[in-house]
């Protein structure tokens, strides 16, 4: 089968299209013919030393396509259009239900072959019917970002209807997912943008307001807009934005953090945390229950992901470069048939 393969650590140029042998399907697995995949920050990390176990490696966590083979029981019939849950969990009999955070053992496309190929083999429990109201590109844009955003908002951030939520990275794949889901959950969204173009695009998702972080004084913009500070900050950026996060947060507020794309190390006064009774919640991607609940919300709410640009698989290096450069609002989708 044809696949995009990371041959060694490095820049986007280390991704090559190759013919890769395809072995027999293992018991308990499903084989999906991948029609569309999409690019996440996690895909870029597979080109960093020490992330994946060996090279050459097929990246890709998101995928939508046709179920072509099963080695086990499933309520989904072959020939059906499916989306893939990228969270690889322990088998049901080995899970620790009292400690679910230990049950997610890997991300699809990290230490196993991912979706940037003609076919991808995944555990049967990781396939779900694709939402019927979405295009194939929109379905491929869902899995990792919507799963992570759902867990951040619904389970870790515990957002409540009517609360104000500041969403950093509002124009990115995770940020646009968070805006759509937070609106569905009844929150009042303030989304960040770093340019006139991004602000215009993000406004189409109908947040209550746009915060222009490039203009500075983020906390002042928040207060000028809503008359007070926010209840919850949704952050996957950190780094230099951290002080603005805390300055924008009301006493008793929460920060939910699922990434540090702008920097891992920050400095702050711990006394501010106990004095203001703030809560800081770390978060990774969600589990099977989160994926089910997220898909239910997408289906019942007729929610649609934002697809920023579609690249053919033959231009996967360019898609990675575009992800690194930024500037594309929404998800970068890959057509695996081209």
UniProtKB/TrEMBL annotation:
Protein known as: Zinc-binding dehydrogenase
Keywords, ordered alphabetically: NADP
Pfam families for the chain: ADH_N (PF08240), ADH_zinc_N (PF00107)
Gene Ontology MF, one: oxidoreductase activity
Domain of life: Bacteria
Domain Enoyl reductase (ER): 10-334
């Amino acid at each position: 089968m044809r696949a995009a393969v990371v041959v060694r650590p490095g820049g986007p140029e280390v991704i090559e299209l190759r013919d890769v042998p395809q072995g027999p399907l293992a018991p308990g697995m499903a084989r999906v013919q991948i029609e569309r995949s999409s690019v996440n920050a996690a895909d870029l990390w597979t080109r960093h030393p020490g992330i994946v176990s060996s090279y050459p490696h097929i990246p890709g966590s998101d995928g939508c396509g046709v179920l072509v083979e099963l080695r086990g029981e499933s309520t989904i019939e072959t020939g059906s259009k499916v989306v893939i849950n990228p969270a690889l969990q322990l088998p049901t009999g080995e899970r620790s239900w009292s400690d679910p955070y230990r049950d997610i053992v890997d991300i699809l496309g990290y230490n196993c072959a991912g979706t940037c190929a003609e076919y991808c083999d995944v555990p049967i429990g990781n396939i779900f019917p694709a939402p019927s109201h979405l295009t194939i590109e929109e379905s491929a844009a869902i899995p990792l970002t919507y799963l992570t955003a759902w867990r951040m908002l619904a389970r870790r951030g515990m957002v409540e209807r009517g609360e104000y939520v500041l969403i950093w990275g509002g124009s990115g794949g995770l940020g646009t997912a968070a805006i759509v889901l937070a609106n569905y959950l009844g929150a009042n969204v303030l989304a960040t943008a770093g340019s006139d173009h991004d602000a215009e695009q993000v406004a189409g998702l109908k947040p209550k307001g746009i915060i222009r972080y490039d203009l500075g004084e983020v906390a002042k913009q928040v207060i000028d807009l809503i008359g007070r500070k926010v209840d919850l900050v949704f952050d996957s950026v950190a780094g230099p934005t951290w002080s603005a996060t805390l300055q924008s947060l009301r006493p008793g507020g929460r920060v939910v953090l699922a990434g540090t794309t702008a920097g891992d190390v920050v400095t702050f006064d711990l006394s501010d945390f106990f004095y203001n009774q703030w809560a800081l919640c770390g978060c990774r991607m969600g589990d099977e229950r989160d994926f089910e609940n997220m898909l239910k919300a997408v289906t019942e709410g007729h929610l649609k992901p934002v697809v920023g640009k579609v690249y053919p698989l033959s231009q996967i290096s360019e898609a990675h470069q575009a992800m690194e450069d930024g500037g594309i609002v929404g998800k970068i989708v890959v057509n695996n048939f081209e």
